[in-house]
Amino acid sequence: MSIFNLFEKQSSANIAKERLMMVLSYERKGLPSNFADILKNDLIAIFSKYPQFDSDNIEVEIKSEDYRDELWISIPFANGK
Fold first, then answer.
1. Tens digit of pLDDT for each residue in 14-43?
2. Model pTM greater than 0.70?
3. What is the CA radius of gyration of the chain?
């Protein structure tokens, strides 16, 4: 993905293609379709015990780029808490 693609509007066909690729990726790895949601809920339960982290804004995604899949997790620090 280049910087110029950030401002282009994606067609519904491209969005549908990305979603289908994600579903197929989950199936190939033997993961449940709601794996990211399950993992996110577990991380929220763990990190909510620590005030240093903003557990309400934890993000979990499985991204596919360049013929590889990546697990992407963002656990932000709390702002001045």
1. 767 666 666 666 566 777 878 888 889 999
2. no
3. 16
Give the span between the Cα atoms of 65 and 43, in whole angstroms: 24
Helix residue spans in 5-81 (DSSP H): 12-29, 35-47
Residues 77 and 81: their CA atoms lie apart, in Å, by 9
| Residue 8 DSSP one-character state | S
Query: Which residues contact residue 76 at a Cβ distance below 8 angstroms, ignoring those fewer than 6 apart?
Result: 53, 54, 57, 58
The alpha carbon of 33 is separated from its chain's Cα centroid by a whole number of angstroms, namely: 13
Q: How far is CA 15 from the centre of its chain?
A: 15
Residues 60, 74: Cα–Cα separation, whole Å: 7
Residue-range domain boundaries for the chain: 32-81
**Distance from C-alpha of 67 to C-alpha of 15, rounded to nearest angstrom:** 17
Question: Which pLDDT score is estimated for 67?
Answer: 75
